[in-house]
Write a structure and sequence with these properties.
Blueprint: E1 5-6, E2 17-25, E3 35-41, E4 52-57, E5 62-72, E6 87-88, H1 97-109, H2 114-121, H3 124-127, E7 132-140, H4 148-156, H5 160-175, H6 184-190, H7 197-204, E8 208-216, H8 223-229, H9 239-251, E9 257-263, H10 269-285, E10 303-307, H11 315-325, E11 332-335, H12 341-352, E12 358-361, E13 373-379, H13 396-407, E14 410-415, H14 420-427, E15 432-436, E16 447-452, H15 453-459, H16 468-479, E17 483-487, E18 496-498, E19 518-521, E20 529-532, E21 539-540, E22 554-556, H17 560-570, E23 576-579, H18 587-598, E24 604-607, E25 620-625, H19 639-651, E26 662-667, H20 673-679, H21 683-695, E27 704-712, H22 715-736, E28 741-753, E29 756-765, H23 768-780, E30 790-794
Parallel strand pairs: 1-3, 9-14, 9-15, 10-12, 10-13, 11-12, 13-14, 16-26, 17-24, 17-25, 23-24, 25-26
Antiparallel strand pairs: 2-3, 2-5, 4-5, 4-6, 7-8, 18-22, 19-20, 20-21, 27-29, 27-30, 28-29
Helix pairs in contact: 1-2, 1-13, 5-7, 8-11, 9-10, 19-20, 22-23
């Protein structure tokens, strides 16, 4: 039952304890409201909520990690015998109270075991102490509680380097009376000594004390990113920017509030973020900031969390934060998947100790262990990458809003194309709306043209992926020294391998999924390439002959590889780079390509949707959308919204300098509202029409949704499970007397992935509360468990 504690296979050891704790195990065991009850041995007295511990589990008493979520002096009367906590698994301070409360909310709202939520909050590198080494630290032994005369007398008895070392050590203690510990090499350097010999001599004399401390060593150097973001001086704010900064600034220190910053591409949203952070720090200097102080530690001042969709793609944005707020990054910690394990451990530790006050990172940075948070910023809040696709299936934007509520601070959501959820909240007055309708001085919105590919095919012989208009503009842009960005949100060479005889109808499909295979050309292979499934990653050899008709097969459709081939043939003089999941294997690949394009070494950048994010290059004068239809006809009610966002975002890469810029959108649906309104930079009209159409059928944001996907290798077994779950959901709706619509079960749009058949059941209601009641009821009854066979997705962003 939710809220109860449990004891697993208690032994016969009589309890000699310093109290009792409830521990949420870092396993997929759903004791959702609480955890498992353990006794605390006297040696571990003082365990606190938020500490990570090791406890015995099961008949074999296997040591298992978990998190203390409750402490008490009284044992649970339902438990006859208790197992004991084995050890403290992490010697750092407990997680802040706000994160513990946040974890409970995530576990309940997103239907996930509480221990797994805690496990997500702390990176694996921190749990494993990657990069951690024991290092020597020294500190001056101050005479007579720091008496100046005693210090002078002691110094007078020393000569040469020893006197200089002692003076430097005393200065460090005076600067930080509760700390002052220094690396012996750093202390020697400050005193002008070439070795540590003078330091160790003073240790022997008892004038310096020493200890061993755990230090995480990493080679992360943020100076390069700092240089990428350096500017001569902060720009003068436009009136709309100043108004937004003033509004957010007035909300600082006044409790929880949500601000939607709707600014067109190039309108200076990042500068608004920077000024809001500066305002927070200025208030602190004036004594208006709230401080936290723990015994033996300096006060913790309010910090800031900045979320970006994918940090590897936004080096310029990250660099601006580092350049503005840190000495070589001293005030900024960076958290993202491109870091090594040791680097991630070191950055997380800086935030936990209060050494860095600004956490910049992707989705998981919302869990940054700042002791106190004064402001949260979510850049490009509409991005689907903020939603995690595995347990816990949280949405970082919504979690950021909940954390801001718990911390009692403002949260700023920024986007040129806000999600309809956030926009509807702002229009209803639940969020404060701040608009930036103009680009910064010197930049203009690009001119956008729509090319009808159906007409193009009728008027032009042969197969061409680039229209005549786009080719003409690419030629003239190159001649003028401009750079070009081409977007095609489909990788590979061709996405169909088929029999040319239309009467046959054979197409090459994945043996393990209900999808067509994608041809990837690889010249180094004897076959010239492979076919690959983009869902299960299975590879097969290209079938040259149709197995049913005997005709030679043909490949058709388009992908970034095929566009790359056509560009190389038609524009051999252009230096081109391709950015997609096939070419970007690690953070160095992103850095290399982005640096080459930013510096002007690359003339043309071709890529998937990743190039639509955060790219700010003044010399980009032309943007081409090779096919605006790739997402438009997907069986998902958000298809039009995603199409609008992608076109508007990539179009915004053009015209960020003194040249206005041009955009060509190629499509077979030239009259579709999403494409027409994106070309006109008309978000308001698009949002109004889309919101109206969804309201008529109760789709988000006018209603709320949860999606349960069941998967199994055995189709009859899956059908039986799906029907049983749907029946249980409908029974719960009737028993609880709530208004929730249960739809399904039906096969998913992609009915089989990696040999697993997939069915889904959808819950829809006017608000989130009744859906939560139904889900909680089934969890309590043990009829709904999130595991590898059942995925509960609350507020889904994709229905594929």
């Amino acid at each position: 039952m939710l809220g109860q504690t449990h004891n697993l296979f208690a032994d016969d050891t009589p309890p000699v304890t310093a109290g009792y704790v409830t521990v949420a195990l870092e396993r997929s065991i759903d004791a959702a409201g609480g955890g498992f009850s353990y006794a605390v041995p006297l040696a571990l007295a003082g365990l606190a909520v938020g500490q990570r511990v090791t406890v015995p589990l099961g008949r074999g008493n296997k040591p298992t990690s978990g998190w203390v979520v409750e402490t008490t002096d009284k044992p649970d009367p339902a438990v006859k015998r208790f197992k004991h906590v084995l050890a403290v698994a992490d010697d750092g301070p407990p997680l802040p109270d706000a994160l513990v409360t946040l974890a409970r909310w995530i576990a309940a709202y997103y239907c996930c075991p509480l221990g797994m939520v805690f496990g997500t909050m702390m990176p694996a590198a921190v749990k494993r102490s990657t990069g951690r080494k024991m290092k020597r630290r020294v500190r001056a032994v101050m005479q007579n509680d720091g008496d100046t005369e005693a210090e002078t007398e002691t110094k007078g008895k020393l000569k040469g380097l020893q006197a200089a070392v002692y003076e430097a050590a005393c200065a460090a203690v005076k600067k930080e009376p509760k700390a002052g510990w220094m690396d012996p090499s750093d202390l020697a350097d400050q005193a002008g000594a070439k070795t540590n010999a003078s330091v160790m001599q003073l240790v022997k004399k008892g004038l310096l004390e020493e200890k061993k401390v755990a230090v995480v060593e990493s080679d992360l150097d943020l100076r390069a990113q700092r240089a990428a973001g350096e500017v001569d001086a902060p720009p003068t704010l436009m009136q709309s920017q100043a108004a937004a900064v003033n509004a957010v600034g007035q909300a600082l220190g006044k409790g929880f509030s949500v601000h939607l910053l709707h600014g067109i591409t190039g309108s200076g949203k990042t500068e608004v973020y920077l000024r809001a952070i500066a305002k927070l720090f200025e208030d602190e200097k004036r004594g208006n900031a709230t401080c936290l102080e723990s015994e033996g530690s300096p006060p913790f001042l309010p910090g800031v969390i900045v979320l970006v969709p994918e940090i590897a793609l936004t080096p310029q944005t990250v660099g601006r934060f580092i350049a503005r707020f840190g000495q070589a990054g001293g005030g900024v910690a960076v958290l993202h998947s491109g870091l090594t394990a040791a680097q991630r451990n070191a950055q997380w530790g800086r935030l936990r100790r209060g050494e860095a006050r600004i956490a910049v990172g992707a989705r998981s940075a919302v869990f940054a262990p700042l002791p106190k948070v004064g402001l949260i910023i979510v850049d490009e809040e509409h991005e689907g990458s903020y939603k995690q696709d595995q347990l816990p299936r949280y949405h970082a934007r919504d979690v950021a809003i909940r954390r801001a509520q718990l911390e009692g601070c403002p949260v700023v959501l920024g986007s040129a194309t806000p999600s309809l959820e956030s926009y509807s909240h702002a229009k209803a007055g639940r969020f404060a709306l701040h608009s930036l309708p103009d680009r910064v001085p010197g930049a203009q919105l690009p001119q956008v043209e729509i090319v009808d590919l159906q007409r193009e095919r009728q008027e032009r012989k042969g197969i061409h992926l680039l229209s005549r208009r786009l080719e003409s503009l690419m030629q003239s842009n190159a001649a003028a020294g401009g750079q070009t960005v081409l977007l095609l949100n489909r990788r590979g060479y061709a996405n169909y391998i088929a029999c040319p005889d239309h009467r046959c109808g054979w197409m090459m499909r994945c043996h393990h999924c209900d999808v067509t295979m994608v041809y990837h050309r690889e010249k180094k292979l004897p076959s010239g390439g492979v076919v690959r499934c983009h869902h299960c990653q299975a590879e097969q050899m290209l079938e040259r002959v149709c197995p049913e008709s005997g005709h030679s097969t043909t490949v058709f459709g388009l992908g970034t590889q095929r566009v790359e081939e056509e560009i190389s043939r038609k524009f051999p003089q252009l230096k081109m780079a391709r950015m997609d999941a096939d070419t970007m294997r690690n953070a160095d690949d992103y850095r290399r390509v982005l640096e080459g394009f930013t510096s002007g070494e690359t003339d043309l950048l071709l890529g998937t949707q990743m190039i639509a994010k955060g790219l700010d290059v003044e010399n980009v004068r032309l943007v081409g959308v090779v096919s605006a239809d790739t997402a438009l006809n997907l069986p998902d009610f958000r298809a039009s919204e995603r199409t609008f966002q992608l076109i508007a975002q990539v179009a915004g890469r053009a015209g960020r300098g003194k040249y206005r810029g041009r955009v060509v959108v190629q499509t077979f649906s030239p009259e579709d509202p999403a494409i027409v309104q994106a070309a006109a930079h008309d978000f308001e009209s698009f949002a109004a029409g889309e919101l109206e159409s969804r309201e008529g059928v109760g789709l988000p944001p006018s209603g709320r949704m949860a999606r349960i996907v069941l998967r199994d290798l055995d189709l009859p077994k899956l059908q039986k499970r799906s029907q049983k779950l749907a029946h249980a959901l409908r029974e719960a709706v009737t028993r609880l007397n709530v208004t929730v619509r249960v739809r399904g079960p039906v096969a998913c749009s992609i009915a089989r992935i990696a040999d697993h058949h997939r069915h889904q059941v959808e819950l829809m209601a006017d608000s989130a509360a009744p859906i939560q009641q139904v889900l909680t009821d089934l969890r309590n009854a043990g009829k709904l468990i999130s595991d590898t066979h059942t995925a509960v997705d609350v507020d889904p962003v994709s229905l594929l």
